Amino acid sequence: MSGPDKPKVIGEEWSDERVKSFLFITPYDSKLNPDYQVLLKAYQAMRASDFERFLGFFTEAGRDLNATNELGQTILDHISEHRRSVDYIAALQTFGAKRAAEAQG
């Protein structure tokens, strides 16, 4: 976190331990899908290269890449709405993520 007394850190290298720590995030609301929430938080916090590393740990742990949010969207659906998400989308597709319509079919 940056602020007036803390300089903003750009380009910081993330260790495997730090990337893996996102596997243990728990949703603030028990109605939310924990796998979707973990993916969302990782996407919001990580650079694309770290996110791709995270996806390896996520799938190794047997987590669901096609978990949905309360609107029925997978993380691939959500991220696809963002203009600068091409590298994140490619990483998700590499690991087998699908859009909600594909996952149901």
From TrEMBL:
<protein>
    <recommendedName>
        <fullName>Aminopeptidase</fullName>
    </recommendedName>
</protein>
<dbReference type="InterPro" id="IPR047742">
    <property type="entry name" value="PA4642-like"/>
</dbReference>
